[in-house]
Structure formats: structure tokens, C-alpha cells
Design a protein that fits this description.
Radius of gyration: 31 Å
Number of strands: 29
CATH superfamily of the largest domain: Glucose Permease (Domain IIA)
CATH topology of the largest domain: Glucose Permease (Domain IIA)
CATH architecture of the largest domain: Distorted Sandwich
Largest sheet: 10 strands, antiparallel
Strand content: 35-45%
CATH class of the largest domain: Mainly Beta
Number of helices: 3
Length: 378
């Protein structure tokens, strides 16, 4: 059988033809993206909404996000609308032209931070949790409240969790929030808006305190030293940045049964003075001394100590800047550094420290700010 051979000249011609086709396709592939976009009415790139002027011929175009105007520029036959960092839903965005008004069909993938449910109103003493789950990893994320950085905590994946909280008697009517984000692709965005701060409906009460509260208990200078040590230590523990201890706290069980004898936020006047302070926790009474107090949520024991004013005290860190405190215990069942699970016994109801009878003073703090434990988080 005779084999047919291919002349070398034909092989060379085939190779030349292949290279010629390749050279034609390379520039075509570089311009393909722009060619495709030329036929698309709307697309999103680097947090910018681009509208093709071929499809939107009117002279007037306006972009709104929650009623707030967005900047619009024009370049190379496209309108460019810079999208805000904080968008709660696609319905929040609206495009208005001479001919049409519509909501662009955006998805979370089109936005640097995805859709974020950020509160525009807060009540003094009530914590609000915010979660940001960006569609792509961020190089940087910063949130400031009235110029001060808010501690951010990393959740599973790229999720970020933090809390907004304002103390009772803060005196604020409005708070300025600034969010900055930088993506790994180099996009940098900044968004500033106001949060309305409302006063809570907290009761007022007048209290007359005895000698132990007014400093006439005969301890003299020792009393001030004991209080100074106690207050500084508790303040330091509350300001310590807590780590990620699992899922973010989503609510507490009650640490003990009974009735609330003094609710959170009661604004107090002591011995005829002005209403300058408030109750930073909730007092739960109706239980005899020795009734077990249990952990309402898992966490780490930051402190288990006998203080002068607070009495036998336990402080728990639940992660994400959330800490809980238990005062006036009769005994301590846990030690500093231990991990506790929901339902573990912390100690017993007592009347140690500045206490007029057996009860539990229970506090919840978010980034050191006292919040209503019965409404945590809102």
C-alpha cells in the first residue's frame, strides 16, 4: 500500500493561514467587550451604573437613592451614576429621564457591600445590630459614629457584624454615620448619612440614700480607694475588644426567674438632687437569697470578683462587643477565664454590696454602652 505524502510547502501555507486568522481574532477579542456594551442599555462596573445614551436619548436624567440625588456624569455615549455604598434594596434606587422613570434591576453582586439594612433611627438604650455581607472580599471597611470608630467583628465568610447604641441621657437628636469601603479591585467608596436618635420612654424616680451610699459609713479614704479600683477595673474590662465567640448574640434568656422590680433606664434623682443618672441594668427580685443565677448565653468569664459597691460580681463576654454583668450575688460558682454555656450556674441571688435586699442587678453592655437587656438586640 502506497502512502500519500503532504508536500512541505502546503504545511507552511496552512501555518501561515492559521497565524493570519489568529492576528485577526486578537484585536477583535480586545474590542468585543466594548462592542457588547454598545448594545446593552444598562450595566454595572465598579459600583457605577452605566446607561447607554443610544437607549436613553433625553437631555435630562436624574438618579435617586431613597430620595437622595446621586451624581450623574456623561462620557463616551454613556451616563455614569455612582451607586451609594448603603442600599437596602433595589427598589430604593430610581432613574428618571425625559421619557421614562424606573427602578434598575440590580442584584447584590452589583454593589460593593451588597444590600445592607442599616437603621436610620435609634432609641436611646436600645441596641441595633447591623450585618454586612459583601458579595466579594473587601480590602478595608470602616464605620464611624460621630467621628469615633465603631468596633467591627468578622463573622463566617466575609460577613461583618457591629452594633449601634446610644446611652440614655445622651442629649443627641441626630448622629452622623460615615462608612468607608475599599474593594480588592481598587474601588474606594464613602457614604455619610444621619441617624435620628430618639429619647426612650423611661420613668423617673426620687431616691433617698443612706450613709453607705453617701460616704458616711466611717470608711473615710478607704471607701474612695475601693470605689476607684472597682470602677476602673470594670471600665477597663468593658472597653476591652471582645473576639468572635461564635454566632452573634441574638437575644438572652432570663438569668433568673422573678419580676423586674426596677427596669432599665429609670432616670434617678438622689437625695433631692437633679435627674442626672439612670439605672444601667434591670433589677430582678422576688427570689430568696441562694436562688441560682444562670448564664443566659454562652461566653467567657471576664471577671468573678467581690467588689465594694457591686458586691459579688460576674462579667461575661459574649463576643461582638457584647458583655453582660451580674451584681450582688451571694456566692460565685465560676472563675475568671472559664468558658460558660447557656444555663451554666454563675452564682446565687444575694444582697452583697450596695443592696437593700436579695435581688439580681443584670446589665448588658454594647461597646461599653448600657442597653436594655430585655430588648437586646432590637
Amino acid at each position: 500500500m502506497k502512502l500519500k505524502t503532504v508536500p512541505m510547502k502546503k504545511k507552511s501555507q496552512n501555518r501561515s493561514y492559521f497565524l493570519f486568522i489568529l492576528l485577526l481574532l486578537i484585536p477583535a477579542s480586545f474590542s468585543a467587550q466594548n462592542s457588547v456594551r454598545a448594545g446593552i442599555p444598562i450595566y454595572v462596573q465598579d459600583n457605577t451604573l452605566c446607561l447607554n445614551r443610544t437607549f436613553f436619548r433625553g437631555e435630562r436624567i436624574e438618579a435617586l437613592a431613597g430620595g437622595r440625588k446621586l451624581p450623574v456624569t456623561e462620557d463616551r455615549g454613556f451616563f455614569h451614576i455612582r451607586l451609594p455604598l448603603l442600599v437596602s434594596s433595589a427598589k430604593e434606587l430610581r432613574i428618571i429621564t425625559d421619557d421614562v422613570s424606573f427602578n434598575p434591576l440590580l442584584t447584590e453582586e452589583d454593589l460593593a457591600l451588597g444590600f445592607v439594612q442599616f437603621p436610620r433611627e435609634c432609641i436611646e438604650g436600645v441596641a441595633r445590630r447591623v450585618e454586612i455581607d459583601p458579595p466579594r472580599p473587601l480590602e478595608k471597611l470602616e464605620v464611624r459614629m460621630d467621628g469615633e470608630k465603631i468596633p467591627l467583628y468578622r463573622g463566617r465568610g466575609d460577613r461583618v457584624i457591629f452594633y449601634l447604641a446610644y446611652p440614655v441621657l445622651s442629649g443627641e437628636n441626630e448622629s452622623l454615620i460615615t462608612v468607608k469601603a475599599v474593594t480588592r479591585s481598587g474601588f474606594a467608596g464613602r457614604y455619610t448619612f444621619a441617624v435620628k436618635v430618639k429619647k426612650g420612654k423611661y420613668l423617673k424616680e426620687r431616691l433617698t440614700l443612706g450613709a453607705v451610699y453617701t460616704g458616711e459609713d466611717g470608711l473615710g479614704r478607704i471607701r474612695s480607694l475601693l470605689l476607684d479600683y472597682e470602677n476602673k477595673k470594670v471600665a477597663r474590662l468593658l472597653k476591652s475588644k471582645s473576639g468572635w465567640l461564635g454566632d452573634p448574640p441574638r437575644g438572652f434568656d432570663l438569668p433568673v426567674g422573678g419580676r423586674v422590680t426596677s427596669p432599665f433606664g429609670v432616670i434617678r434623682s438622689y437625695n433631692g438632687r437633679g435627674y442626672r443618672t439612670y439605672h444601667t441594668g434591670a433589677d430582678i427580685g422576688g427570689n430568696p437569697a441562694g436562688t441560682p443565677v444562670t448564664a443566659p448565653l454562652g461566653g467567657e468569664v471576664l471577671c468573678a470578683e467581690d467588689f465594694y459597691a457591686r458586691g459579688l460580681t460576674v462579667i461575661l463576654d459574649h463576643g461582638c462587643g457584647v458583655k453582660s454583668l451580674y451584681y450582688h450575688l451571694d456566692r460565685l460558682e465560676v472563675k475568671t477565664g472559664e468558658a460558660v454555656s447557656p444555663g451554666d450556674v454563675l452564682g446565687d441571688v444575694g444582697t452583697t454590696g450596695f443592696s437593700t435586699g436579695p435581688h439580681l442587678h443584670w446589665e448588658v453592655r454594647v461597646n461599653s454602652i448600657p442597653v436594655n437587656p430585655m430588648l437586646f438586640p432590637h
